[in-house]
Each structure stands twice: as structure tokens, then as C-alpha cells.
Amino acid sequence: MSEAVVDNIVAVLPPLLQTLESLSFVARNLNPAEFGNVMQIAGEPDEALLAVKPRLADWPEQFSHIRAPLQAAIDAALAGYAGLRAVMNGEGDLVSVFRALRYLPRALEALYPLTELPPVSGFFIAPELREDAELQAKLAAVPNDNTGVFHEGNEPGSRGGFSMYVPEYYTPDRAWPLVTALHGGSGNGRGFLWSWLRDARSRGAILVAPTATGQTWALMGGDSDTPNLNRILDQVRARWNIDETRMLLTGMSDGGTFSYVSGLDGASRFTHLAPVSATFHPLMAEIADAERLRGLPVFITHGRLDWMFPVQTARQTQGLLAAAGANVTYREIDDLSHCYPREINAEILQWLNGAQAADA
């Protein structure tokens, strides 16, 4: 690689990665009443990124495989920040904020193929494991077959497909835990995949992120999503070695609520449920399969500041499911609004893998 290209990469990566971290910070801490404060804390890393963006011009053609992903990631990161700034300037509302944050997973998807670069690989490792020499060695090796990021019928705007991630060090000689993660209302699996990928990559889990067959999950009326989840599960299990005792169904908001709807059914094949920022109607406990509920591991995560589904709902759900015989773990996060708390993934995976989690 030419010295000039190396210099450009060294100049571009730090502000790009910092901008992505700042966008992630806004997504994690978004609360309509605190938006201005959150943006102030997030800072202005996009200004430094904008300043180094011209360094991607006029690269030798043989390095286009590096330049193109960097360019796409930078453009998406800058577009996301520009959307947030517009709202700060009075041009837009909460919907505009959500729309701006959709650029974050697009930037991450564009950047991920560059994990051959150590700073990029480190970015996609859970922070507490970045100094783990064994993990670094596994990720630095040549990827095994049938690994990485896949999209099956899950192009932007499509419904019913799925995206997935298989750790590059996957081998079929042992069974691997499966995380099936359901996006929130009006979202899609291709974007939600990135809420979990860093932890699946760091801790060794196969990750599937389906997209609902409709605009959101089948919470009312006919259920076309559970049969689709079963179809996806069959497809994944036919190709990879999945541990039948560690199959998690989790989700955010509407996705979390649907993990109850589908996961409490007596025919569900998932062994563990972990709804996040979800709602739950008491009737769901009454009509749920009693045998299914008995001893079922359920990990509930909810924010004390949730403005969409008040935390009292989650507290009530904990009591209802425990009374029905489920094995409930409950995590209430003091500073969490109606957002996805990526920091909970590590504990959920430990719980899925059999570690005992004491209730808070």
C-alpha cells in the first residue's frame, strides 16, 4: 500500500470512528426532552470528519476497494449528523431525528468490510474485550467459509427477509448460540443487525435480524410473522450448527412486544426471550400456554425514563410472568428512555449461555 494512501487512512479513520460513536451515543441517549443536552455532549466530531473528507479524492485505482467503503461510511455519517443539526436549528421534529439516525447503520454496513484494518476491527469489538489477545488473533485470521454479514431478501424497502452475521471464526464442529433480534416499529432487520453485531462478533454468537412482513410486527390481527420466523430459523439451522438449547428471541419496542406474542406460544421453538423497551397486556399472560410459561427464561430490560411505554408496564409484566411460573430476570436502567441500550447485550448473552443473573 502506498505511503500516501496509508497517510490518508490514518487521517480519515479517527474522525470517522468518533463521529460514528457520537451518533451511537445520541441513539442510545435520545430523549425528546433532553435532545439539546444530548447533542451538546455528543459534540461536533463531524466538523473534523468534513475537514479530512477531501483526502479520499484521487486515490490510485488499485485502492478503490478501500476508498469506496470509506467514502460511503463518511457520507452516511455526515448525512446523519446534518439531519440532527437541522433539528437543533428548528428544522424538523422527533421523526426527523429518527430519520437522521437511520444513517448510522448504513455507515456501519459500509465500513464493516474494512475490518482488515486494525482500527476498524477494534471498533467492531466490544470495548471491554478490545485488549483480548485471543479474540484479536481469531479475528485477524483469514475468515472461515460461510461467515460474515449476509442479507437474504432484505434489500432496503423490502419486507419479510432477514440479515444475519456469523462470526468469522465460526466452525461447524460445535453448536453455537443463536440471537434472533427483532427491530422496532417501522424499522427493518438490516438496520437493527448493528445493534447486536459488535457483541455477537466479540462473544461468539450467530445473529439473525429479520424484517417484519408488514410495516411492523403482527401485534393485531393475523400473524404472518411467526411462520416467517420459523422459515428463517429452518433456513439458518440447515446451514449453520445452532445450539437448540440457546435460541434467543429478543427485540426492541414493537419487536420486543412481538417476542412476547410469538415467544409465549406453546409451539415456539425459542428457548429464551429478552424483550427490550416493550409493552405487555395482562391478557397475554392469561392466554399464554401455561406449560410454555413454566420455567421459561425471560430477561426484561426497560428504561425508567421510557416515554412511549411507561416503566410501570414492565414492572407489572415482571410480576405477571413470575406469578405464571416464568423464570424472570428484570433490568431497569435509570437513564434509559425509549432507546436500545446496547450495553445490555453482554449480560443477555451471559444469561443465554447459562450464567446466573441475580434480579435487580
From TrEMBL:
Keyword Signal: yes
Domain of life: Bacteria
Protein's UniProt keywords contain Hydrolase: yes
Record GO terms (molecular function): hydrolase activity
Gene3D superfamilies with a match to the protein in the record: alpha/beta hydrolase
Keywords, comma-separated and alphabetical: Hydrolase, Signal
Residues annotated as domain Phospholipase/carboxylesterase/thioesterase: 231-344
Protein name: Phospholipase/carboxylesterase/thioesterase domain-containing protein
